[in-house]
Amino acid sequence: MVIIALLSNFYYFTGMHSHLSALGQRLRRARRRHFPRDDLAAFALRIGVSRATLQKMEKGDLSVSMGRYHAAARVLGLAHTFDALLHEPASLFDDDVR
């Protein structure tokens, strides 16, 4: 039973890490495109984090809060993309229509 739980956690974190790693890569590309003259320290200052935290974000570190990513997205003009997180498409069978 313990082995199954450990394997389950391993696959969960592996999948989550790949998503966050991709998010970090997109953040790095957007930072370089929108602020090509900023180094890590300058952009970190813009979004209110340390240089080390920005490095973690661009690596997809699990310890960085989503609020930090949202701050970066806001500075990059991409805050609207957070609306797509956990967005479930409407179904014809839903009772409450929004």
UniProtKB/TrEMBL annotation:
Which molecular-function annotations from GO does this UniProt entry contain? DNA binding
Signal sequence extent? none
Taxonomically, which superkingdom?
Bacteria
CDD domains found in the cross-reference section: HTH_XRE
Q: What Pfam families does the database record attribute to this sequence?
A: HTH_31 (PF13560)
Protein name (record): Helix-turn-helix protein
Highest lineage ranks of the organism?
Answer: Bacteria, Pseudomonadati, Pseudomonadota, Gammaproteobacteria, Cellvibrionales
